[in-house]
Amino acid sequence: MRLPWLTLLPLTSAASLQRITTSFGPNPTNALFYIYVPDTLPANPAILVNPHWCHGSAEAAFRGSQYANLASKHGFIVIYPQSPHTADSCWDVSSRETLTHEAGGDSLGIVSMVRWTLNKYSGDSKRVFATGVSSGAMMTQVLLGAYPDVFAAGSAFSGVPFGCFAPTGRNNSGVYGYWNDDCAKGRVKKEAEEWKAVIKAGYPGYEGWRPKVQLFHGTKDEILDFVNHGEAVKGWAAVLGVEGGPVKETRDTPLKGWTRFVYGEAGWLEAFTAEGVPHDIRVQENTVLEFFRLNYTEGYFSWGEGGPGVKPVRV
Ligand SMILES: *[C@@H]1O[C@H](CO)[C@@H](O)[C@H](O)[C@H]1NC(C)=O
Ligand SMILES: *[C@@H]1O[C@H](CO)[C@@H](O)[C@H](O)[C@H]1NC(C)=O
């Protein structure tokens, strides 16, 4: 196929998606490591992790959003991990291993990619972020819960709460890639304190600083029921100590029919209700970048800064 018009476009960047095949640290499930490194970077670049959706790939995630372009513009690195589970290319968000700090699973492989990148590019370890859609949103919540010491913030589009996909009433050790239909259909409901216990079990004994959380969900989600949005809000609100309902509500933001609810004065939890939107939600790159302050040149948002009264202690 010939694409003659390409020659008319200014070539702004030579950077492209690369696969890292060297050993990059513990990766027990053999997740694949793809990375986008802009040609020009600041001295200590931030890192954005963008896990793909089910039946997706690193390449599809790379092409399916503006994050790589924005990384070139603002000078950060994007890691596009790829699921090793070839049957459905979903992420493992059910096993004890993936849901527990340093215990293994896909989450540990992804964290190894982060650590390798921090080392290789002198990255800013206090500005590591995660965002994704669907299975990528579920993995984002897994990363925030199991690795609160690694991530400064996360943003999840059409996901489920941390731990919701773990099989109920069963030992989930080694139970990788389990499809929890009860969770998907919105039948897994817990009290705020129960979700808090589930999230805290992701890193037993951890009392340190917790990442900020941003959640988006369509009210007409036919794959991962909208109930999951409310359940996730309850859990994170309890963990972050911002219970008691939203302190601010803004209609028609960032799109018409979407409403932003902010929990806690410090804005540690933001939840967007997308009225009438199905599972296939439109990613809002600019709103995510603003939450992470990845489009700022000064006044960065960093791990350990601010928050609802939790001491910045890295264990
Ligand atoms: C769960 O299974 C794992 C591996 O089979 C085992 O090591 C562990 O003791 C079990 N945990 C419980 C609570 O039964
Ligand atoms: C970052 O992006 C947001 C959303 O587009 C915008 O409102 C904000 O002004 C931007 N901040 C900077 C410093 O450019």
Automatic annotation (TrEMBL):
It comes from the Eukaryota. GO terms for cellular component: extracellular region. Residues 1-17 form the signal peptide. InterPro entries: AB_hydrolase_fold, Esterase_phb, Plant_Biomass_Hydrol_Est. It is found in: Secreted. Its EC number is 3.1.1.-. GO terms for molecular function: carboxylic ester hydrolase activity. Keywords: Carbohydrate metabolism, Hydrolase, Polysaccharide degradation, Secreted, Serine esterase, Signal. It holds the Pfam family Esterase_PHB. GO terms for biological process: xylan catabolic process. Its main location: secreted. NCBIfam families: esterase_phb. Belongs to the carbohydrate esterase 1 (CE1) family. Esterase involved in the hydrolysis of xylan, a major structural heterogeneous polysaccharide found in plant biomass representing the second most abundant polysaccharide in the biosphere, after cellulose. This is Carboxylic ester hydrolase.
